[in-house]
Amino acid sequence: MTIGNVKKEKSTKAKIKKAQSSSKKTAPKKKKVVKKKATKKKVKVPKKKIVSKWDIKKTQKLQKAVNKWGKAIGQSYRFYDGKRTLKTKNGPTYPDVLKKNRFLLNKKIIKIGYSLLGKNDYQYNVVAIANENFETVKFFV
Fold it and tell me: pTM score, two decimals?
């Protein structure tokens, strides 16, 4: 029986050594820190409303004033109506000229274009164009 006890002691000593060695190997696991990417929420920015101080009534009032003034000096004007182009004697056609040509103001290029109500993406919105006997063109900005 002593042999059996000895064997038991060896086996329990072996188990203890094995447990101690395995406890050394199994150190507590480090938790991986996962950084979450900061998600940017898309905030809808309301578009700026372009408030125009120009309207159809003002266009009509301008046309009456120009025609009255034209009669006083012996001239008659035809206004651009948004459909039929205005052509001068020298050849330029309006409002096409505004799109094709480059305009400078104080040595800087500016965007200028026809806009009946002054609400387009131009720096300068032409709200009326008048032609006197197909010779000269007048802009009203």
Answer: 0.55
